[in-house]
Amino acid sequence: MLQLFQQLFGKKPHTIQLHISSANGFHLRPVAEFVNTAKTFACDISALHQHKSVSAKSVNALLSLGLEKGDSFTLLARGKDAKAATETLQTLFARLMREDKEVSTLGKESQVYDGQIIEGEIISRGVVIAPACRYAEREFATEARLDFSEALAKSLDELETLYLAHKEEENGSIYLAQKALLHAIADDLDSFETFELTIAEASAHLAGSKMASKIIDYKDILRRVKNHRGIKTEMILPETSAILLAEDLLPSQITQLSNSRIEGVVLKKTTLTSHTAILLRAAGIPSLIADYSTVKEHRRVILDANSGMIVTKPSEKDLAEAEKRKTEDRKQRDIAANRRFEKALTRTQRQIHVLSNVTDIDSAKEAREEGAEGIGLLRTEFLFKNRKPSIEEQTKAYTEIFSCFENITVRTLDVGGDKKLPYLTLQEEDNPFLGIRGIRLFKTHSQLMEEQLHAIFLAANGRPVKVMFPMVSTVEEFVQAKAFAFRTAEKYDLDISAMLFGIMVEVPSVLFLIKDFNRVTDFYSIGTNDLTQYLFAIERTHPSLKVDEYSSVVFDAIKTVIDQADKPVSICGELAADPKAVGTLLKIGIETLSVSPKSIAATKEEIRHV
Asked: Where are the beta strands (DSSP E) in 451-558?
């Protein structure tokens, strides 16, 4: 195939071999991100697998290869930016494989019931007692009928809006992936009938493969377009509490469930990695994958998604026990939510400050609503993702976010390693994780960093905003970056005397230099995600090697910083929101935790029990 390609097109293309290491295969979400990046290059890019060649700029075409774990394919690029395209896509693909972790089967709590049991896989935890209700739907015509092109445009706009509203959540990428899929399938089609036929053909191709669970996304985008064509389908849901039994559900139907009396869901033909399952988890709806064929409709049953079972004929004792567990679960959630704006005090009345990690104005507003006391980590990469932002755009974005809180820590641009930008040229490195990234951009891309600092200083407008430099390994690096910041302020005649400058503790060398850093830094924030992987020399999303996140080595490293630092110390890694770790972190002296917006209430409640 490669020789034929060369004969047809002449000059030898740039080629790379890519291997599918994810247990989930090369499915819709990673394919969508891969294609979006491929489209930023002018060159022609193709993917070859088993004598079949398709465009790497088409979601539908790439999915048609049916690439599963263990498969490999060749990427070919031809054109003036072909080399840059293959290098960027190779790095992106490696990250997608690492991040696309297999969803583990949730551990089942031990529970004994008297009634008949149907076992299943847990999608989302919780306990529900309610009558069983089998799925039903109705189709009807509406007055608002758009032609195909209008319905398509409306559907694409809806998916973009949904993505923007949820982009920092696990489910956000689902909407972006569906948008890319819809765009790829409908491109150049001029009728709804042809579109419907294309969907049917694509679904038939996936049927029977390991990618069969993705057929639901094809059905979902078809239904979305049909809705705008005036053919609406909706679920028939009960007006009283119920447990829904369905073969499968469309991702778009989960929102309707969240606003209904459905308290739990049992699906027969889905997978733990399906987009429907991801959205059920995000919505917090107790749900299982199980064969419910023997469950009689309208019969009161127990859905125990903590133990992974349906109790079809529960005894009075079973019902009493399930009600008790359900009440305890709800009580804990309600207590945490109702007290989210209160101080987080330990049992000894020691106050722990709970801040939030945010990425944009939407997550900042969410953090404020969830009870955050400030921003412990503002990731600024969101502004730089697809194109280089102007100073004006940056200033506007930072100003909006800074208006949400008084206590704010903003991290300067952290790219490099597995985080690359399509427009940013970085030197090719044998090991990019140990090369140009984080604070080292001040040396290689000084203009970019000057513009970012300029925008941050303008948005701060004299306020005591904290500026944090990532991936610092030596005192000299920090001193030089801080001096760069002050030169930038002087250049634009800006007063930054109230601002503070600190470091993200991620590189192990810093552990031996804390006393030296004390002389020059104003604060420390420990990034446990990167610190852990550098301590053990294991990339934390590696598909086979695993890091012990609760190792004494990790906590000893954190304690070293706390014991030797004479400046404030916080933690902004995933460990900060881990219920198993919070008690230990407080015991060794941490006073400030920075977590995701959704983890704020639960983290505060966990602190109150320490």
From this structure: 466-469, 500-505, 524-526
The yes-or-no verdict on residue 469 having pLDDT over 50 is yes
Cβ atoms 291, 247 nearer than 8 A: no
pLDDT digits (tens, 9 = 90+) for 386-404: 567 899 999 999 999 999 9
CA–CA separation, 455 vs 477, rounded Å? 22
- Which are the contacts of 429, defined by CB distance < 8 A and separation ≥ 6? 435, 436
Q: What is the CA angle 164-451-595, rounded to 5?
A: 45
Looking at the chain, how many residues does it have? 610
Is residue 460 helix, strand or coil? helix
Q: Would residue 353 show up in a list of annotated catalytic residues for this protein?
A: no
Question: Which of 213, 205, 180, 182 shows the shortest CA–CA distance to 195?
Answer: 182
Pairing of strands 121-124, 287-289: antiparallel
* Measured distance between the N- and C-terminal CA atoms of the chain, rounded to whole angstroms: 63
* Residue 72: C-alpha distances to residues 12, 44, 205, 326, 373 (Å): 20, 20, 19, 47, 48
* 391 CB-contact burial (10 Å; exposed 0-12 / middle 13-18 / buried 19+): middle
Q: What is the DSSP letter of 507?
A: S
Largest CA distance in the chain: 77
- Give the tokens for residue 39: 């489209």
pTM: 0.58
The one catalytic residue in 14, 27, 183, 275 is 27
Given a contact cutoff of 8 angstroms between Cβ atoms, the answer to whether 14 and 85 are in contact is: yes
Three-state SS at 303: strand
